[in-house]
Amino acid sequence: MQNNKKYMTKNKLIESLCKKTGLSKKMSKEILETVFEEISWALSRGEDVVLPGFGKFSVSLRKERKGRNPRTGEEITIPEAKVPKFKAGKILKETVR
């Protein structure tokens, strides 16, 4: 069975930004990378990033849990970890439907 899933890559996103804004590819790339960097920095400082209508980025604490090493079957303890989370906003949900 062949996977026909299409992806919006970073380069495609930059190209789309160029077409819609008239900005150069270099400037569009800088803007997009700055947005990603700022979201990452805010999350690393424990801040949520709220984009009304689009969604909310946040950090969640995943508790320590038991797991198994897939090669040996040995039980291991997976330590707690901070993980990024995204919750889609109302407008984004409606657009996707």
Unreliable sequence segments: none
Distance between the termini: 26 Å
In CATH, what is the homologous superfamily of the largest domain?
Answer: IHF-like DNA-binding proteins
CATH architecture of the largest domain: Irregular
Order of helices and strands: HHEEEEEH
Main sheet record = 3 strands, antiparallel
CATH fold-type name of the largest domain: HU Protein, Chain A
CATH class descriptor of the largest domain: Few Secondary Structures
User: Hey, roughly how much beta strand do the residues contain?
Assistant: 25-35%
Structural class: alpha+beta
| Average predicted confidence as pLDDT | 92
Helix count, DSSP H or I runs of 4 or more residues: 3
Instruction: Provide the spatial order of strands within the biggest beta sheet.
Output: 1-2-5
Based on CA inertia axes, which overall geometry fits?
extended
Q: What is the percent of helical residues?
A: 40-55%
